[in-house]
Amino acid sequence: MGNGIEIGHFAALTALLVTLVQVFAALYGAQSRQPRWIRVARNSSFAACGLLTISSALLVAAFLNLDFSVLYVVKHASRDMPVFYLATAMWGGHEGSLLLWAWLLSLFIALAVWKHWKSHPVSMPWVMAISGALLIGFLLLVLFLSSPFERMIPARMDGRGLNPLLQDPGMALHPPFLYLGYVGFVVPYAFGMAALITGRVGEEWILATRRWALFAWGMLTTGIIFGANWAYYELGWGGYWAWDPVENASFMPWLTATAYMHSVMVQERTGTFKTWNLFLIITTFALSLLGTFLVRSGVLSSIHAFANDPGRGVYILIFMSILLIFSFGWLVKRGDALSTPVKMESFFCRESAFLFNNLFLLVAMITVLLGTLYPLAVETLSDAKVSVGAPYYNKVFVPLMLGLLLLMGIGPVIPWRRAGGRIFRTAFTIPLVVAIVLGIGIVLLFDVDHPYGVISVFLILFVAGALFKDFVMRIRQRRARESSTGTFAALFHLVRRNKRRYGGMITHLGILLMVMGFIGSGIFQEERNLLMEPGDTVSIGEWTLDLEAIEPVTGENWIATEARFNAQKGALSVLLKTQKRTYNEHSNPTTESAIHTSLMEDIYVVLGDEAGKGLWGVRIYRNPLVIWVWIGSLVMGVGVLLGLFEKRRLGSRR
Amino acid sequence: MTTPETPDTQETTPMTSNRKRWLMVGSLVAVLGALGLLVFTSFTDALVYFFTPTEIQDQSAKMADRKIRIGGMVQEGSLKRTSGTLQIRFLITDGQKDIPVFYDGVLPDLFREGQGVVAEGVWKPGETFIATTILAKHSEDYIPIEMSEEGIAKSKKSLLDSLK
What we know:
The complex is a heterodimer.
Chain A: H1 4-32, H2 35-64, H3 71-76, H4 83-88, H5 94-116, H6 124-145, H7 169-184, H8 186-198, H9 204-208, H10 210-234, H11 245-270, H12 274-296, H13 303-308, H14 310-333, H15 335-338, H16 350-382, E1 385-388, H17 390-410, H18 421-445, H19 451-481, H20 487-497, H21 499-523, E2 526-532, E3 537-540, E4 543-554, E5 558-569, E6 572-583, E7 590-592, E8 594-597, E9 601-610, E10 616-624, H22 627-645
Antiparallel strand pairs in A: 2-10, 3-4, 4-5, 5-6, 6-7, 8-9, 9-10
Chain B: H1 17-46, E1 47-51, H2 53-58, H3 60-63, E2 67-74, E3 80-81, E4 87-93, E5 98-104, E6 116-123, E7 129-134, H4 149-163
């Protein structure tokens, strides 16, 4: 029961003071052109990072030592939790997760300052001042409005523990990955703002922060996928994405970040889109903050509780308002310097594809924003309560996704500036023919009867064909130059010489596989809801499921009712066990779904309630192609890693 | 996005500058318009309003035959299963008035008598609320978004009163 938590609290307080020094020293140094003040700011940023590392480590230590005299530990831990979940319980509630945010922010600031110190002397003071101000904002919240360092006196013997549903590796690691994504955008944001303030609004800030942005995007993607994966395997409702406000909160910055990843390439190549890129990075970072606040402030679970705790709510609103007014204010102020003549030679060129890609992604973001915030606004203003269901999102997102898919096949393949009819014919004739021939085959073979299904099949084949055709053409060109190289050697050289381009292509391939999974599981899901008793048989798709037995089973810290199914498809036979489980310290049961996965489809069985007479409610889903969502995300990860290894600065070839 | 054109002196393509710009702006506006329309129509269709049992009983006719959500507590002792089927009937109460609910399907884990619940479906005035979905709660601490603390407190109190 040492005083670790007081030391942690003190370290965080000191970090706040040190960060104040960082901001004012950087501003004073920039104004008075005195490098030593800027060096003071640099060292302060390192010190703040060190102090917050100590502070966070001590909070984790309080969990590992089961210090039940700390209120936050009492709320989120218990004696019977495994060590791994004790450590990850540090971000189990909003107090600790805001501290994690602040620590990651200080870490990113310190790393960015260290890495760009020599190369960006003009921007550096502004980067330090802006990122420092953000850190101050977070530390004030952590220290004064939502502190994880509070004592609980007298101490408890045991804590409340963590919901068993959340005791899952994917869920434990989901928040830190999301935060790495959210916080990662602070570096491009701060460099972008520094570019605006210093008036050097060229491409430099984009080139300098390309890998930061890619890293953040990759982490955000990983975090979202972890969440979806957890929902699919743990929650037992047969799906992975419910358009829940909590999910939407992380999806919005992802959409604008994805738009940003594309539009920066236009600026690198042609010098246009300057204002647009700044707008996108500001919006992405603002949405990252909004995402954190939406999920971690409690506004979603109870707007009344949120409104009744005026301190935190008002603080967050003021924080967001200052950020938006400051950022967009500078953007407007520099409007003149940002305008550039358009040098597009033809409507048909890669720039156009990117423009429409951005348009679609922005509409997607607005769609989610509207659906997420409208209910909150209605409730705040009129006290009426309204919800926006999944049908709204599905209706809007399927056409948006298909439009983006089409652009994905065209954009990367056609040249910048101008793409004549001849280029279109050589690039797309074969993919188009292949898509139509194979597409008709697949549609007939698998009996695809939904119009969106048919369009998706054609588009996926067309995009895959176009990307493949492009690969083949480039390998041929290379082999024509160096006739001795083999196909694979040529491919290897190609990829190694332009990791960024092929990283992007592999990411696109991953998206393509994921879309397959989305369409398969989203449109062609089959569901059966029925009552069964042992001996009964049910069929779904080509599968026949026999319910063999329903009996009680016991585990280490739970008891359960288990239903055993024998699922058969042709000669294949698998045993599926689904449980209704009750953990010792929790009165409510949880569902352990049984899932049989194959490349074609998942069979997903959930045990419901007993309906009397030995009959049990059973839900069975057939989710076609769902595994491709996970495979596609792994492929995307490979693409992102490849892009991160690209050290060379591309672009600026005007 | 539309910035002044550069002088057209080197323009040799068949596509003239004016036509190019017209095509660009025109297609952007067309696509944006179509997407805007899609978002707008889907949005207005998908809004589901939430009411308490009292609100429904007070304005019964107005609530009829459209998709709405109701929320409250599952009245203690009101849950009846039709043996041999998945059909259930129960009362949702806000402590003042209650609404009979019919549902045919597998219930979420945390559905219990005396617990908060949100049901989505259609109100048949004077008869029952035909629920198509009973909302799952993802954790024990979770209170349905639409359910205010006052509602829960009130309903708990009236449950206690009814036991006296």
